[in-house]
Amino acid sequence: MRKYNENILDSSVWVTVTPTAGAMNLPFHIMEMGHFYAEHDYVVQREFHDSFLLLYTIKGCGVIESGDEKVALGEHHTLLMDCHLPHKYYSDDCEWEFLWMHMNGASLPALYEMIYPDGLRAFGFSWEHDYQELLAYSGYGDMRGNIKISSTLHTLIEKLYTASYETAKSSMELMHMEDVQKVITLIHAKYADPLTIDEMIADIGISKYHFIRVFRRIMGATPYNYLINYRIHVSKGYLSNTTLPISEIAEKCGFADTSNFITHFKKHTGQKPLQYRNSFYGF
Q: Which of 108, 173, 177, 237 could cross-link to 168 by cystine, CB 3.0-4.6 Å?
């Protein structure tokens, strides 16, 4: 289902961008962007759109619905919406002046989850200057312009994450910073053991599922993924500085068996352990 009531003034700007293959290989790229002067009955509703939508209210107020969530986007506030979910955005019975930008990138789904671990919300910062810069570079079409666009979008995502993190300072996440550090210390000390999440949080007084969300918010990975990553990190030292057999390194680093070690190592590094070792000796 797709519904539009694009009641916008003629002074509105709507720019379509057709990314080249080179642009699409960069971390982020723009698909469409604009500066709308919307009337009181403006509405867009879709079941799906293959993008993430960045919105910023200059004047008035908009309402954003995504899945089961509903958020007001007031003046000088920014919001990133996942358009892969059913969504709707519209003026809140008033004229609504806003900037918008459909963007994409391979890392955006994971970054979106980090920005919104507990639900959609708006953040009070402006990207009007960035919009003007992006609008200028979108007309170049060359790789220099594409790289500048990707870099500027990266900065905007960083601003969103920072705003999200700062907002969480008074919430449960930072109340459990000490608990997260305890688990990190435990992982560093006992990575060679078959650690489970229950063992990691045995002395921490919150639920397993809540702690996983907190840990991921702070560290950017679940406790299990952090453990695997640390085991890979330690194994690199054995591979580059010793002649120990791969099977022995796997055991020393806490992997169930050699095959399991090789699978995880290749997933994290793009190489098998022996290839990684040989790269240090020019084989």
A: 173
